[in-house]
Amino acid sequence: MKIGILTSGGDCPGLNAVIRGIVLKGTTTYDFEFVGIRDGWRGVVDADFFPLTRHEVKGLSKVGGTILGTSRTNPYDGPHGGAENVAKNLAKHGIDAIVAIGGEGTLAAANRLSADGIRILGVPKTIDNDLRATDYSFGFDTAVNIATDSMDRLRTTGDSHQRCMVAEVMGRHVGWIALHAGMAAGAHAICIPEVPMSIEEICDLVTSASDRGRAPLVVVSEGFKLKGMDQAYSDKGLDAFNRPRLGGISEVLAPEIERRTGIETRSTVLGHIQRGGSPSAFDRVLATRLGLHAADALVDESWGQMVALRGTDIVRVPFAEALGELNTVPLQRYEEAAALFG
């Protein structure tokens, strides 16, 4: 078989390790031929393909980003979009199937194309860790490590000036990065999308920490909503899937905290630094294992499914299961961390 591989949506550490795992096992064990698809679904609709051999993937497990490029293109948009045109492009280049590596938006597009007859296998990717069908997704561990290191640095400068530091991390619908990094860094308040808080509650925690002689650290997910807010804060328009581009809630909270508490407060949006750099050892191993098992799934023609981590095992689950419900932070997990607040 001739297989096309694409990476779509936001990049993250570990994408190259997946590509390497698929290509190495696919070529050496199953004698597959692979082609790279440039820039996600854009490369599918524009037929932008190139040969992907062992030579192209050597040494990739430690390299961040993606050698294939990525985009947030919707494969059903534009004059060349739609399942019929995609099928024509694949047939013209002799491509039998696609491995789509991506998160919620990518897998939703893959599910729709699969229902329209395109042979697709999925590999989950999201630093937010928001896909319920897999216990962890690669990129999450690295993002948490980067965020924790950044918060450790914010705490030292906050201690020096007795400032309140507000650190904003990624997390559109779920607060896993904020929860893990906030606990690891010893945050005095963690604000996540699953648990709306009032500005009064946040300020009470900040004041409590300050009264004990601490420089308060507040960690907030980009998708966090204050009580009374109908939508997450966004002033950056919409992406290709008509979702608001989030970011900036910390810059709303910081001046309000300072105004209400009298404590000098600074905000820092970590943003895309969480997506960059080399993957952690955990993410290198997880991504490689997912790639190896994806090659096995190709042999079994497990179309319309994705490989996933369950416990320590790699399993296969239908796209519909992966997309049915988000992997939100359970209230019990948040309450564990809340015992340390203030």
Automatic annotation (TrEMBL):
Instruction: Please name the Gene3D superfamilies in this protein's record.
Output: 3.40.50.450, Phosphofructokinase domain
Catalytic activity reported: beta-D-fructose 6-phosphate + ATP = beta-D-fructose 1,6-bisphosphate + ADP + H(+)
Binding, ATP: 10, 72-73, 103-106
Q: Where are the catalytic residues?
A: 128
The record's keywords, sorted A to Z, are: ATP-binding, Cytoplasm, Glycolysis, Kinase, Magnesium, Metal-binding, Nucleotide-binding, Transferase
Its EC number is: 2.7.1.11
Q: Check the record and name the InterPro entries matching this protein.
A: ATP_PFK (IPR022953), ATP_PFK_prok-type (IPR012003), Phosphofructokinase_CS (IPR015912), Phosphofructokinase_dom (IPR000023), Phosphofructokinase_III (IPR012829), PKF_sf (IPR035966)
Q: Does the keyword Phosphoprotein apply?
A: no
PROSITE patterns membership? PHOSPHOFRUCTOKINASE
Which is an annotated GO molecular function term of this record? 6-phosphofructokinase activity
Top-level taxon in the UniProt lineage: Bacteria
Q: Which cofactor(s) does the record list?
A: Mg(2+)
Q: Give the site residues for Important for substrate specificity.
A: 105
Phosphofructokinase domain segment(s): 2-298
The UniProt record gives the binding positions of Mg(2+) as 104
Residue positions annotated to bind substrate are 126-128, 163, 170-172, 222, 266, 272-275
Broad EC category: transferase
Q: Where in the cell is it found?
A: Cytoplasm
Q: What is its main location?
A: cytoplasm
Q: Which family does it belong to?
A: Belongs to the phosphofructokinase type A (PFKA) family. Mixed-substrate PFK group III subfamily.
Q: What does it do?
A: Catalyzes the phosphorylation of D-fructose 6-phosphate to fructose 1,6-bisphosphate by ATP, the first committing step of glycolysis.
Q: How does it assemble?
A: Homodimer or homotetramer.
Name the chain's protein.
ATP-dependent 6-phosphofructokinase
Q: Which organism is it from?
A: Microbacterium capsulatum
As recorded in Swiss-Prot or TrEMBL, the protein's gene is named pfkA
